[in-house]
Amino acid sequence: MVGQAVAAVSEAHLEACSVARPDPERLAEWLVGQVLGDWNDAADLDPLDYADVLGPAGLARLRQLAAEARRRRPNGWAERYLMERLVKAEGDVDALVALYAKDLVPSGATHLRIAEELDAAGREDEALSWAERGLRATICEAHVDGRLADYVCARYMQAGRMAETVAVRRDRFRTEDARRERGGWCRGPVLMDVLLDDGDLDGAWREAAGCADDRQWQRLADLSRETRPADALAVYWRLIEPLKEPTGDRVYERMAQLLLNARDCHQALDTEAEFTAHLADLRAELKRRRKLMTILDRHGL
Fold it and tell me: Which residue from 228, 183, 179 is spatially nearest to 204, judged by alpha carbons?
Protein backbone atom coordinates (compact mmCIF):
# COMPACT_ATOMS: atom_id res chain seq x y z
CA MET A 1 0.00 0.00 0.00
CA VAL A 2 2.84 2.37 0.81
CA GLY A 3 4.54 1.53 -2.48
CA GLN A 4 1.36 2.25 -4.44
CA ALA A 5 0.95 5.57 -2.63
CA VAL A 6 4.55 6.57 -3.40
CA ALA A 7 4.07 5.62 -7.06
CA ALA A 8 0.91 7.76 -7.22
CA VAL A 9 2.80 10.71 -5.72
CA SER A 10 5.59 10.20 -8.29
CA GLU A 11 3.09 10.28 -11.15
CA ALA A 12 1.49 13.42 -9.75
CA HIS A 13 4.91 15.02 -9.37
CA LEU A 14 5.77 14.38 -13.03
CA GLU A 15 2.44 15.82 -14.16
CA ALA A 16 2.91 18.87 -11.92
CA CYS A 17 6.43 19.45 -13.28
CA SER A 18 5.12 19.24 -16.84
CA VAL A 19 2.75 22.09 -16.06
CA ALA A 20 4.74 24.22 -13.61
CA ARG A 21 8.11 23.91 -15.36
CA PRO A 22 10.41 24.21 -12.30
CA ASP A 23 14.05 25.25 -12.52
CA PRO A 24 15.63 22.43 -14.57
CA GLU A 25 18.90 22.29 -12.65
CA ARG A 26 17.18 22.15 -9.25
CA LEU A 27 14.86 19.48 -10.61
CA ALA A 28 17.89 17.48 -11.79
CA GLU A 29 19.42 17.72 -8.30
CA TRP A 30 16.19 16.51 -6.70
CA LEU A 31 15.86 13.60 -9.13
CA VAL A 32 19.38 12.38 -8.51
CA GLY A 33 18.77 12.56 -4.77
CA GLN A 34 15.65 10.45 -5.16
CA VAL A 35 17.20 7.88 -7.50
CA LEU A 36 20.23 7.37 -5.29
CA GLY A 37 18.23 7.42 -2.07
CA ASP A 38 16.50 4.59 -0.26
CA TRP A 39 12.99 5.20 -1.62
CA ASN A 40 13.48 4.73 -5.36
CA ASP A 41 12.64 1.01 -5.20
CA ALA A 42 9.20 2.00 -3.98
CA ALA A 43 8.74 4.91 -6.39
CA ASP A 44 10.36 3.21 -9.40
CA LEU A 45 11.43 6.71 -10.46
CA ASP A 46 13.12 7.20 -13.85
CA PRO A 47 14.78 10.61 -14.37
CA LEU A 48 14.51 10.21 -18.14
CA ASP A 49 10.72 10.44 -17.81
CA TYR A 50 11.44 14.10 -17.01
CA ALA A 51 13.53 14.74 -20.13
CA ASP A 52 11.07 17.21 -21.67
CA VAL A 53 10.86 19.17 -18.42
CA LEU A 54 14.60 19.12 -17.79
CA GLY A 55 15.60 20.30 -21.24
CA PRO A 56 19.27 20.57 -22.28
CA ALA A 57 20.35 22.43 -19.13
CA GLY A 58 18.67 20.01 -16.75
CA LEU A 59 19.93 16.95 -18.59
CA ALA A 60 23.47 18.33 -18.53
CA ARG A 61 23.20 18.91 -14.78
CA LEU A 62 21.76 15.41 -14.36
CA ARG A 63 24.74 13.95 -16.23
CA GLN A 64 27.18 15.98 -14.14
CA LEU A 65 25.64 14.87 -10.85
CA ALA A 66 25.50 11.24 -11.97
CA ALA A 67 29.21 11.35 -12.89
CA GLU A 68 30.09 12.87 -9.51
CA ALA A 69 28.08 10.22 -7.68
CA ARG A 70 29.78 7.49 -9.70
CA ARG A 71 33.20 8.85 -8.75
CA ARG A 72 32.25 8.90 -5.08
CA ARG A 73 30.87 5.34 -5.14
CA PRO A 74 32.37 3.54 -8.15
CA ASN A 75 30.92 0.22 -6.97
CA GLY A 76 27.47 1.53 -6.14
CA TRP A 77 24.76 -0.32 -8.08
CA ALA A 78 22.35 2.64 -8.24
CA GLU A 79 25.11 5.06 -9.26
CA ARG A 80 26.31 2.74 -12.01
CA TYR A 81 22.81 2.05 -13.33
CA LEU A 82 21.90 5.76 -13.42
CA MET A 83 25.05 6.61 -15.35
CA GLU A 84 24.46 3.78 -17.81
CA ARG A 85 20.86 4.92 -18.41
CA LEU A 86 21.94 8.49 -19.12
CA VAL A 87 24.82 7.56 -21.42
CA LYS A 88 22.69 5.05 -23.30
CA ALA A 89 19.91 7.60 -23.75
CA GLU A 90 22.42 9.98 -25.33
CA GLY A 91 23.13 7.38 -28.01
CA ASP A 92 26.92 7.67 -27.65
CA VAL A 93 28.05 4.07 -28.15
CA ASP A 94 31.73 4.87 -27.57
CA ALA A 95 30.93 6.56 -24.25
CA LEU A 96 28.80 3.59 -23.22
CA VAL A 97 31.56 1.13 -24.10
CA ALA A 98 34.07 3.22 -22.14
CA LEU A 99 31.71 3.19 -19.15
CA TYR A 100 31.27 -0.57 -19.25
CA ALA A 101 35.02 -1.06 -19.74
CA LYS A 102 35.72 0.59 -16.38
CA ASP A 103 34.04 -2.28 -14.56
CA LEU A 104 34.76 -5.53 -16.39
CA VAL A 105 33.53 -8.49 -14.34
CA PRO A 106 35.61 -11.70 -14.35
CA SER A 107 32.80 -13.83 -15.80
CA GLY A 108 32.95 -12.01 -19.15
CA ALA A 109 29.37 -10.74 -18.82
CA THR A 110 30.49 -7.13 -19.29
CA HIS A 111 32.45 -8.01 -22.42
CA LEU A 112 29.27 -9.57 -23.77
CA ARG A 113 27.22 -6.44 -23.01
CA ILE A 114 29.79 -4.34 -24.87
CA ALA A 115 29.67 -6.74 -27.83
CA GLU A 116 25.86 -6.55 -27.91
CA GLU A 117 25.90 -2.74 -27.87
CA LEU A 118 28.44 -2.63 -30.69
CA ASP A 119 26.42 -5.19 -32.67
CA ALA A 120 23.33 -3.02 -32.30
CA ALA A 121 25.34 -0.09 -33.67
CA GLY A 122 26.39 -2.12 -36.72
CA ARG A 123 30.00 -2.46 -35.58
CA GLU A 124 30.24 -6.26 -35.81
CA ASP A 125 34.03 -6.54 -36.09
CA GLU A 126 34.58 -4.52 -32.92
CA ALA A 127 31.85 -6.52 -31.19
CA LEU A 128 33.55 -9.82 -31.97
CA SER A 129 36.90 -8.43 -30.88
CA TRP A 130 35.51 -7.50 -27.46
CA ALA A 131 33.84 -10.89 -27.09
CA GLU A 132 37.08 -12.69 -27.99
CA ARG A 133 38.96 -10.56 -25.49
CA GLY A 134 36.45 -11.50 -22.81
CA LEU A 135 36.72 -15.17 -23.68
CA ARG A 136 40.50 -15.09 -23.34
CA ALA A 137 40.19 -13.33 -19.98
CA THR A 138 37.80 -15.96 -18.59
CA ILE A 139 39.74 -19.09 -19.48
CA CYS A 140 40.86 -19.68 -15.89
CA GLU A 141 37.89 -18.11 -14.10
CA ALA A 142 35.69 -20.20 -11.83
CA HIS A 143 32.39 -18.62 -12.92
CA VAL A 144 32.05 -17.89 -16.62
CA ASP A 145 29.01 -16.50 -18.41
CA GLY A 146 28.28 -19.27 -20.91
CA ARG A 147 26.51 -16.81 -23.20
CA LEU A 148 29.89 -15.31 -24.09
CA ALA A 149 31.16 -18.57 -25.56
CA ASP A 150 27.78 -19.05 -27.28
CA TYR A 151 28.09 -15.59 -28.85
CA VAL A 152 31.64 -16.14 -30.12
CA CYS A 153 30.79 -19.59 -31.50
CA ALA A 154 27.70 -18.27 -33.26
CA ARG A 155 29.75 -15.55 -34.94
CA TYR A 156 32.46 -18.04 -35.95
CA MET A 157 29.87 -20.39 -37.43
CA GLN A 158 28.30 -17.57 -39.43
CA ALA A 159 31.72 -16.89 -40.90
CA GLY A 160 32.39 -20.57 -41.61
CA ARG A 161 35.17 -20.74 -39.03
CA MET A 162 34.27 -24.22 -37.83
CA ALA A 163 37.71 -25.19 -36.52
CA GLU A 164 37.78 -22.14 -34.27
CA THR A 165 34.24 -22.91 -33.09
CA VAL A 166 35.32 -26.38 -32.03
CA ALA A 167 38.43 -24.95 -30.35
CA VAL A 168 36.32 -22.57 -28.24
CA ARG A 169 34.03 -25.40 -27.14
CA ARG A 170 37.00 -27.64 -26.37
CA ASP A 171 38.63 -24.94 -24.24
CA ARG A 172 35.41 -24.38 -22.29
CA PHE A 173 35.00 -28.09 -21.64
CA ARG A 174 38.60 -28.37 -20.48
CA THR A 175 38.08 -25.49 -18.08
CA GLU A 176 34.95 -27.08 -16.66
CA ASP A 177 36.68 -30.45 -16.36
CA ALA A 178 39.53 -28.81 -14.43
CA ARG A 179 37.03 -27.25 -12.05
CA ARG A 180 35.43 -30.64 -11.40
CA GLU A 181 38.83 -32.17 -10.70
CA ARG A 182 39.45 -29.50 -8.07
CA GLY A 183 36.39 -30.92 -6.36
CA GLY A 184 32.79 -30.30 -5.49
CA TRP A 185 31.34 -28.84 -8.68
CA CYS A 186 28.24 -30.39 -10.30
CA ARG A 187 28.93 -31.64 -13.81
CA GLY A 188 25.36 -30.97 -14.88
CA PRO A 189 25.78 -27.57 -16.53
CA VAL A 190 28.46 -28.84 -18.94
CA LEU A 191 26.42 -31.90 -19.79
CA MET A 192 23.31 -29.75 -20.22
CA ASP A 193 25.07 -27.51 -22.72
CA VAL A 194 26.25 -30.55 -24.67
CA LEU A 195 22.78 -32.10 -24.75
CA LEU A 196 21.16 -28.83 -25.80
CA ASP A 197 23.76 -28.21 -28.49
CA ASP A 198 23.15 -31.73 -29.82
CA GLY A 199 19.38 -31.26 -29.79
CA ASP A 200 18.88 -34.13 -27.33
CA LEU A 201 15.95 -32.53 -25.52
CA ASP A 202 14.71 -35.70 -23.85
CA GLY A 203 18.16 -36.23 -22.38
CA ALA A 204 18.33 -32.59 -21.33
CA TRP A 205 15.01 -32.84 -19.48
CA ARG A 206 16.27 -35.92 -17.64
CA GLU A 207 19.50 -34.21 -16.58
CA ALA A 208 18.12 -30.72 -15.84
CA ALA A 209 16.60 -31.32 -12.41
CA GLY A 210 18.93 -30.28 -9.62
CA CYS A 211 21.83 -28.98 -11.68
CA ALA A 212 20.74 -26.80 -14.63
CA ASP A 213 21.02 -23.04 -14.17
CA ASP A 214 18.33 -20.54 -15.17
CA ARG A 215 19.96 -19.85 -18.54
CA GLN A 216 19.90 -23.54 -19.41
CA TRP A 217 16.35 -23.99 -18.13
CA GLN A 218 15.14 -21.16 -20.35
CA ARG A 219 17.02 -22.48 -23.36
CA LEU A 220 15.52 -25.94 -22.77
CA ALA A 221 12.03 -24.44 -22.46
CA ASP A 222 12.49 -22.35 -25.62
CA LEU A 223 13.48 -25.44 -27.58
CA SER A 224 10.58 -27.46 -26.15
CA ARG A 225 7.64 -25.07 -26.53
CA GLU A 226 6.12 -26.97 -29.44
CA THR A 227 6.81 -30.54 -28.30
CA ARG A 228 6.44 -30.21 -24.52
CA PRO A 229 4.44 -27.02 -23.90
CA ALA A 230 3.32 -28.01 -20.40
CA ASP A 231 6.90 -28.62 -19.23
CA ALA A 232 8.13 -25.43 -20.87
CA LEU A 233 5.27 -23.46 -19.31
CA ALA A 234 6.23 -24.55 -15.81
CA VAL A 235 9.77 -23.31 -16.44
CA TYR A 236 8.62 -19.91 -17.70
CA TRP A 237 6.38 -19.22 -14.70
CA ARG A 238 9.18 -20.28 -12.34
CA LEU A 239 11.64 -17.91 -14.05
CA ILE A 240 9.14 -15.04 -13.96
CA GLU A 241 8.64 -15.22 -10.18
CA PRO A 242 12.07 -13.89 -9.04
CA LEU A 243 11.84 -11.03 -11.56
CA LYS A 244 9.08 -9.40 -9.47
CA GLU A 245 11.62 -7.99 -7.01
CA PRO A 246 14.33 -6.17 -9.07
CA THR A 247 13.60 -3.13 -11.24
CA GLY A 248 15.00 -1.71 -14.47
CA ASP A 249 14.33 -1.91 -18.19
CA ARG A 250 16.43 -5.04 -18.72
CA VAL A 251 14.50 -6.91 -16.04
CA TYR A 252 11.17 -5.71 -17.39
CA GLU A 253 12.04 -6.69 -20.97
CA ARG A 254 13.10 -10.15 -19.79
CA MET A 255 9.83 -10.57 -17.90
CA ALA A 256 7.85 -9.52 -20.97
CA GLN A 257 9.66 -12.04 -23.16
CA LEU A 258 9.05 -14.84 -20.67
CA LEU A 259 5.36 -13.90 -20.54
CA LEU A 260 5.13 -14.00 -24.33
CA ASN A 261 6.70 -17.46 -24.29
CA ALA A 262 4.28 -18.57 -21.56
CA ARG A 263 1.37 -17.27 -23.64
CA ASP A 264 2.53 -19.42 -26.58
CA CYS A 265 2.49 -22.47 -24.32
CA HIS A 266 -0.98 -21.68 -23.03
CA GLN A 267 -2.19 -21.29 -26.61
CA ALA A 268 -0.72 -24.68 -27.51
CA LEU A 269 -2.45 -26.19 -24.45
CA ASP A 270 -5.73 -24.38 -25.18
CA THR A 271 -5.61 -22.71 -21.75
CA GLU A 272 -5.50 -19.06 -22.82
CA ALA A 273 -8.09 -18.08 -20.21
CA GLU A 274 -5.71 -19.30 -17.52
CA PHE A 275 -2.91 -17.16 -18.95
CA THR A 276 -5.18 -14.11 -19.05
CA ALA A 277 -6.00 -14.62 -15.36
CA HIS A 278 -2.33 -15.04 -14.40
CA LEU A 279 -1.36 -11.93 -16.37
CA ALA A 280 -4.14 -9.89 -14.75
CA ASP A 281 -2.95 -10.95 -11.30
CA LEU A 282 0.64 -10.07 -12.18
CA ARG A 283 -0.29 -6.62 -13.49
CA ALA A 284 -2.38 -5.93 -10.40
CA GLU A 285 0.48 -6.99 -8.13
CA LEU A 286 3.07 -4.81 -9.91
CA LYS A 287 0.86 -1.96 -11.10
CA ARG A 288 2.90 0.69 -9.28
CA ARG A 289 5.82 0.02 -11.67
CA ARG A 290 4.89 2.37 -14.47
CA LYS A 291 7.82 1.44 -16.69
CA LEU A 292 6.91 -2.23 -16.47
CA MET A 293 3.30 -1.51 -17.35
CA THR A 294 4.46 0.50 -20.38
CA ILE A 295 6.71 -2.33 -21.57
CA LEU A 296 3.96 -4.93 -21.10
CA ASP A 297 1.56 -2.72 -23.08
CA ARG A 298 4.11 -2.36 -25.84
CA HIS A 299 4.34 -6.14 -26.11
CA GLY A 300 0.58 -6.55 -26.16
CA LEU A 301 0.43 -8.09 -22.69
Answer: 228
How far is Cα of residue 83 from the mean position of the Cα atoms in its chain?
A: 16
Instruction: Please list the pLDDT of the chain residue by residue as tens digits (301 residues).
Output: 777 787 788 889 999 999 999 999 999 999 998 888 765 554 567 888 899 999 999 999 999 999 898 888 887 888 888 888 888 888 889 989 998 898 888 888 899 999 999 999 999 999 999 999 998 887 655 567 778 889 999 999 999 999 998 888 877 766 675 555 455 444 446 777 888 888 889 988 988 887 788 888 999 999 999 999 999 999 999 999 999 888 888 899 999 999 999 999 999 999 999 999 999 999 999 988 889 999 999 999 9
**199 membership: H or E segment, kind and range:** none
pTM of structure: 0.54
User: 41 lies in which domain range?
Assistant: 1-89
Q: How far apart are CA 193 and CA 189, in angstroms?
A: 6
CA proximity to 279, closest of 250, 253, 258 = 258
* Residues 273/259, Cβ–Cβ less than 8 Å: no
- Verify that 178 and 139 share a domain, yes or no: yes
Q: Domain count of the chain?
A: 3
